[in-house]
Design goal:
The protein is an alpha+beta fold. The chain is about 30% helix and about 35% strand. The protein has helices spanning about 25-45, 105-120, 125-130, and strands at about 10-20, 50-60, 65-70, 80-85, 90-100, 120-125.
Length: about 140
């Protein structure tokens, strides 16, 4: 059995900003984050993913709160901890993926499709915006 694919993971990270004008936005974002990870795992499987090392998400709320979500297999589902309050001004969502059997070049498009499909008003931060941001989200 050829296991050389295990030596070549595809790694991807992306960060998004979500503006949240509506009350109850924290709960909406929390539900969306779980769905995003599940959607992404399914999209990866359809792309031929052989193994999910992990898909992790951290949603940091402004002015407060955080939510951590993780998925290591479709069978185990998404685990989540933390909480986002209902009075968010915005949230920053960071995703990190390590997967096997999917070309790295496909990961940005798959990630954008899953995030932007679930979080209306979300925008992907550019590498410059991510680098220019100083310190943690207030």
């Amino acid at each position: 059995m050829d296991l050389t694919w295990i030596e070549n993971p595809s790694v991807h990270a992306a960060e998004y900003v979500v503006k949240t004008p509506a009350s109850g936005a924290g709960e909406d974002i929390a539900q969306a984050v779980g769905a995003i990870l599940a959607d992404l795992a399914l999209a990866l499987k359809q792309e031929g993913c052989l193994l999910i090392g992990h898909i992790k998400a951290l949603a940091q709320g402004v002015p407060a709160g955080h939510l951590y979500a993780s998925l290591i297999s479709l069978e185990q589902g998404v685990s989540m901890r933390g909480e986002l309050p209902p009075n968010l001004v915005e949230a920053r969502l960071t995703l990190n993926l390590i997967v096997y059997g999917v070309e790295k070049a496909r990961l940005p498009e798959l990630t954008d499709r899953c995030v932007l499909g679930r979080l209306q008003g979300a925008t992907r931060m550019t590498a410059t915006e991510q680098t220019d941001r100083s310190g943690p989200v207030p």
